[in-house]
Design goal:
heterotrimer; A alpha/beta; B mainly alpha; C mainly alpha; A: alpha/beta; Rossmann fold; 2 domains; six-stranded mixed beta sheet; 11 helices; 10 strands; disordered N terminus; B: mainly alpha; MetI-like fold; two-stranded antiparallel sheet; 15 helices; 2 strands; flat
Chain lengths: 287, 463, 430
């Protein structure tokens, strides 16, 4: 039974291989075209929770195929800002947002941008791994089924296996793919959540301190994965760990008390910050 | 001496012993150099003395009360009716109740043997009075002696606090055991009578018989003179009403819980949730009245418009009103279950691009399903055990029907009607109520325990 | 390992199929939301219609139509030797005949005198016995009218022969009554009888005081038993009980008892308290005992929650000072949990106050006129009174039933408000 599954998986992988080789060629073209293009731009964003002014006039852009790290002390609004990018803040009653955020040039807060489409195109991975209490398979298949990206069992299998493969989980769980996703270890759960996010084939992936609940080994795996995913997606990662920001990101934004203090290439921000506050934070004077 | 006087005397004497023991321990403390040389604080000596008075007194009182009647009756019987020793139990019971009624009220129920009966009753009353005097005297003396001995022996070494604490702990334990005793009481009280019933009516006839007419005819030659105790029509009636109730309560309760938990703003929720829960605090008899006052006429008029003939007392009216009663039950339990789910899995689903309703249907409800099933089982248990609404609105006719427009009767209604106003206790009719009670208890017990088990397992999952 | 991800293009999201599906999904979303909203509104409509229908029906029961007549305390009728046994009804009749001198026929006279409630003669009897000097004088007095006329005056019921409910009023009676109304001798006044009298077969004389007293005595018994036992049980289970089979069994029992049908408790009361212990039927003591058994689980569950909310640091603090476990619990923990115990008790008692079925089974359905003076006097209770009156054929009892319900509901609401107030006032965040 088990070997059989492996064989079919292997077969599919081969099929997919041949398939994607064509894609890869075309993709590199696309990538070259859009490389300088900004995927998302945020202009003059202010966020209020009731009377609390959580984000103050932040503007930044997210480029294609980059990892943008957002760092800053606790409560500086990093997560709040991140959660504006896929409008997941909408579910908080008291939260009010002004300013403009565009995805590929289209205003996401306008009424004709459907929030469903937005969230399908801007995926999210949360701080605490939060797999659904469903099987591993159903966790990954959730998004594609939702958006009718798949129409047959074979297509679903294809996406599920390729996404699990992509996050390096397939070999670890191939024999228990129908077991509940909540039975996995923390690191595996988080990779499952990433697989779930990429199964919808988004343009941008938001990651809200994805490694803060994980041990160093699991963290290393996720970081490798992030680096690898960059070839296809724009990734915004909020992190507490400056080392992590330095390791995985191309650009870094430093937030303090709801304001964007500094934004620049990671190497520049960490070695030669323009702003005193950034330097204090990076050198560990506070935070 | 009536019960109140006795209670007051017991209380006064307990406090007296408390005071005396406390005083004495203080005196002893003075002799040895202060309170801190006593093992325990003086009030503990008082507590022990009071307990040593009250506990033996009360236990003897309880024991006495539960056996004295029997002994006295036996004495009277053997003295005046020695020839009846071999008579059967029913005859003896009749004799005893004659004696007791004469003793209490001075009325004779039968004229034969009047002289002997009167003498027996006098003797009975005499013995009862004597027994009471003896009882009161002995419990007071017993308690006083024990307590007094303790007071005499009070010394700095007696560990009064430890004793007092174990007495308190014993009381606490006994209080929590009440739950078990209540259950045992329920089981025994329905079981014994039910067994007596099944000696008269075979279990098979009871459980599978299709006709229920417990009225025992006065004349022997009447049809069904022994009464028919086939409870199937009652079970179907109960299920019919409960079914109607659940089909009102489940959609309304579930959907409103989902709306209030997932959609409503805090403001709406803080108003609507308590407003709906008011329904849970309304006594069932009020629902019964609501059914006959408003719902039944409304349904009847509505039925006329549709060309349906809805009986004045119908399973539909009772079921709908019972459903209204159960709504808050379903909705608040469901609400608990839904809100217990971590917010993070909702966010995960929304972040995948699911709409709110897709999140609810595909993630929240499947995850909450065990908890919801548990709460629905509790609601069903409630519905089949509900009495007043059906008693007032569903009727008394034991009809084997699946038509909710007709009047039906339920297990609970029959239990009440069989017992209300009935004085004799061993006719098949009265005993049938206990047999029905046993069925009802067992059914609800199974539902409750299953539901509680499921809910408990479920809530552990998300702790 | 090379990429196996199927490249995604914006085209998927902008394809007409996707847009169409999106429209459908959003429509489904809206529909679902409105189902939920509809359910909430339906529930609220149920609440509203329950309260409104009962309030509308019951409010008028607090008023009673009264007739003003001049009573001549005729010394011929009132024999000074037997004031209690005199024919007071005759005084009322004579006064009515005087108001309508045209009425001469015997059966018409009888119909005329029926306008005034038969309770009038009891009122006169009491007046004369209290103050014999009234004899020989003429007094202008107000008396309750018979319930049929009460309905006629309040709701215009009985004027036409309605379908299904033929009125017992004759045309003459209605004409006389209307004349009295025109003369201004009919008035709607506050119904004191409703609050001061016991039950009666005559709706205009029936009051809820007997039931109210019965309920009060019963709840008192319940409070005295269930509060100490419930609180003690909660303390034991939460503070002392070892984790073992017995404790588990107790817990299961308590949770199950809270869900056992009330009618089963009635069977228990009948079999144990009445048959086995030989306590009398129909008395508040037995009712209170049965209700206690039903209330104890509620109090234990609420009490345990209150104890659990108290942080261990309080206990540890006391234990560290050398207090024994029992002292810690009794002197530190229980006082802090007291508001929780009280809240649970009040809510439990509110449930008990509305309980009907078990009371029916221990014989509290008897027709009892006298107001009970102690827990061993036969009595009814408010919910049972509702049941009894709801069953009565007279239209006037319908109104009375709603009136008692209003009283009962306001008692329950008061109790719950007190409970909520207690909880709010003493709620502490640790």
């Amino acid at each position: 039974m088990q070997t059989e599954t492996n064989v079919t998986v292997e077969k599919e992988r081969i099929v997919i291989h041949t398939d994607t080789s064509k894609f890869d060629a075309r993709k590199s073209e696309v990538n070259q075209n859009v490389f300088i293009e900004n995927r998302m731009t945020a202009d003059n964003i202010d966020v209020y929770y009731s009377d609390n002014h959580a984000i103050k006039n932040v503007s930044l852009e997210i480029r294609a195929n980059e990892v943008l790290a957002i760092i800053g002390p606790s409560g500086c609004g990093k997560s709040t800002f991140l959660r504006c990018l896929n409008r997941i803040n909408d579910i908080i009653d008291s939260c009010r947002i002004t300013g403009s955020i565009k995805l590929d040039g289209k205003e996401i807060y306008s009424s004709d941008f459907d929030v469903v489409e937005l969230r399908a195109r801007v995926g999210m991975v949360f701080q605490k791994p939060n797999p659904f209490p469903k099987s591993i398979y159903d966790n990954v298949a959730y998004g594609p089924r939702l958006h009718s990206l798949v129409s047959s069992r074979a297509e679903t299998d294809e996406i599920v296996y390729s996404c699990l493969e992509r996050v390096g989980l397939l070999s670890e769980v191939s024999d228990r793919i129908q077991n509940s996703g909540t039975e996995l270890s923390g690191g595996q759960q988080q990779r499952l959540c990433i697989a779930r996010a990429i199964a919808v084939q988004p343009d941008v992936i938001l990651m809200d301190e994805p490694c803060s609940a994980l041990d160093p080994i699991a963290t290393a795996k996720i970081e490798d994965l992030i680096d690898e995913l960059r070839s296809q997606y724009s990734i915004v990662i909020v992190t507490h760990s400056m080392q992590q920001a330095a390791r995985v990101s191309q650009r870094t934004a430093y937030f303090n008390l709801g304001e964007l203090i500094e934004l620049g290439d990671t190497s520049q921000v960490f070695t030669n910050p323009n702003h005193q506050l950034t330097e204090d934070y990076i050198t560990g004077k506070f935070g | 001496m009536n019960a109140w006087t006795l209670t007051i005397i017991l209380l006064v004497m307990s406090s007296l012993f408390y005071a005396v023991a406390k005083k004495r321990s203080l005196r002893i403390a003075e002799d040895i150099g202060g309170i801190r040389y006593l093992h325990s604080a003086p009030r503990y000596y008082g507590v022990v003395a009071a307990a040593l008075f009250a506990v033996p007194a009360l236990s003897v009182l309880g024991l006495w009360v539960s056996v004295d009647e029997n002994i006295i009756v036996r004495m009277v019987l053997s003295e005046f009716f020695a020839d009846m020793q071999s008579a059967d139990q029913a005859e003896k019971d009749w004799l005893v109740s004659q004696i007791q009624i004469y003793a209490h009220t001075g009325q004779l129920l039968a004229t034969e043997n009047a002289q002997v009966l009167k003498a027996a009753a006098d003797r009975y009353q005499h013995l009862v009075d004597q027994s009471e005097t003896l009882r009161n005297a002995s419990i007071l003396v017993l308690g006083a002696v024990i307590s007094f001995v303790f007071v005499l022996f009070i010394s700095a070494k007696i560990r009064a606090r430890v004793i007092a604490e174990s007495i308190i702990k014993l009381f606490l334990l006994a209080s929590s055991l009440i739950a078990i005793f209540t259950t045992i009481g329920i089981v025994l009280s329905v079981l014994f009578e039910a067994i007596l019933f099944f000696q008269k009516i075979p279990v098979r006839d009871f459980l599978f018989g299709l006709e229920w007419s417990p009225q025992i005819a006065i004349r022997e030659d009447q049809v069904g003179s022994s009464g028919l105790f086939g409870s199937v029509p009652l079970f179907t009636g109960t299920l019919l009403v409960a079914g109607v109730a659940m089909s009102v309560a489940v959609p309304v309760g579930l959907l409103s819980a989902i709306y209030l938990a997932e959609y409503a703003s805090t403001k709406v929720r803080s108003f609507a949730k308590p407003a709906l829960e008011i329904l849970a605090g309304v006594p069932t008899v009020v629902y019964g009245f609501f059914a006959i006052l408003v719902v039944a006429p409304l349904l009847r008029d509505f039925g006329l418009v549709l060309g349906l003939d809805i009986a004045r007392e119908s399973a539909l009216a009772a079921g709908v009103v019972m459903g209204i009663m159960i709504i808050p039950f379903v909705s608040s339990l469901t609400d608990d279950v839904i809100t217990a789910l971590p917010q993070s899995i909702r966010e995960a689903s929304l972040a995948c691009g699911a709409t709110k309703s897709e999140t609810i249907k595909k993630v929240v409800l499947p995850a909450a399903l065990p908890g919801i099933v548990g709460s629905l089982l509790l609601a069903v248990s409630r519905a089949i055990g509900e009495t007043m609404i059906v008693l007032m609105a569903a009727g008394l006719a034991a009809r084997l029907t699946a038509n909710p427009l007709e009047s039906v009767t339920t297990v609970t209604v029959q239990i009440v009607t069989l017992l209300v106003g009935d004085q004799e206790f061993d006719s098949a009719k009265t005993l049938a109520a206990f047999a029905l009670g046993l069925t009802l208890f067992v059914a609800t017990l199974l539902l409750n325990v299953t539901a509680l088990y499921i809910v408990r397992k479920y809530s552990e999952q998300y702790e | 390992m090379s990429s196996v991800q199927i490249q995604q293009s914006k085209a998927v999201w902008e394809s007409p199929q996707f847009k169409k599906r999106l429209k459908k999904r959003n429509a489904a979303e809206l529909r679902f939301k409105y189902y939920g909203l509809g359910a909430v509104i339906l529930g609220l409509i149920f609440v509203l219609s329950l309260f409104v229908s009962i309030a509308v029906n019951g409010f008028s029961s607090f008023w009673q139509t009264q007739a003003q007549i001049d009573i001549y305390f005729d010394p011929d009728t009132l024999n000074a030797d037997d004031l209690a046994g005199a024919n007071y009804g005759k005084l009322v009749k004579q006064a009515m005949y005087k108001q309508f001198p045209d009425v001469t026929k015997r059966n018409e006279k009888r119909e005329l005198s029926r306008i005034i409630s038969i309770g009038a003669s009891f009122i006169l009897q009491r007046m004369v016995i209290n103050d014999p000097s009234l004899i020989g004088t003429t007094q202008t007095l107000w008396f309750p009218v018979d319930d049929e006329f009460d309905m006629l005056y309040k709701h215009d019921i009985g004027r036409n022969v309605e379908s299904g409910a033929p009125s017992r009023l004759s045309i003459n009676q209605i004409i006389w009554f209307d004349q009295m109304v025109d003369r201004g001798s009919i008035e709607s006044r506050f119904n004191k009888t409703f609050f001061t009298a016991g039950d009666s077969r005559e709706p205009e004389l029936a009051g809820l005081r007997g039931a109210l007293t019965g309920s009060f005595l019963m709840i008192l018994v319940t409070l005295l038993i269930s509060f100490p036992v419930g609180a003690a049980g909660a303390c034991y289970l939460e503070e002392f009980a070892p984790r073992n089979k017995l404790t588990d069994l107790i817990e299961i029992n308590i949770n199950n008892l809270a869900a056992v049908p009330s009618v089963v408790f009635g069977l228990l009361g009948l079999a144990v308290f009445i048959n086995f212990f030989g306590l009398p039927r129909s008395v508040p003591l037995v009712g209170g005992l049965v209700l206690s058994l039903m209330t104890i689980p509620t109090i234990i569950i609420a009490g345990r929650a209150a104890l659990r909310a108290i942080p261990p640091s309080i206990r540890e603090g006391a234990l560290a000072l050398g207090a024994s476990k029992t002292q810690t619990v009794m002197q530190e923990v229980v006082p802090l949990a007291m508001p929780g115990f009280l809240t649970g008790t009040i809510i439990g008692l509110a449930q008990a106050l509305g309980e009907t079925a078990p009371l029916l089974m221990i014989g509290m359905v008897a027709f009892i006129v006298d107001i009970p003076s102690g827990p061993l006097d036969p009595s009814t209770a408010l919910p049972v009174q509702i049941f009894l009156w709801a069953d009565s054929p007279e239209r006037a009892f319908l109104e009375k039933t709603s009136g008692v319900i209003l009283i009962l509901l306001s008692l329950l609401i008061t109790m719950n408000v007190v409970a909520v107030y207690l909880r709010r006032k003493f709620e502490r965040r640790w």
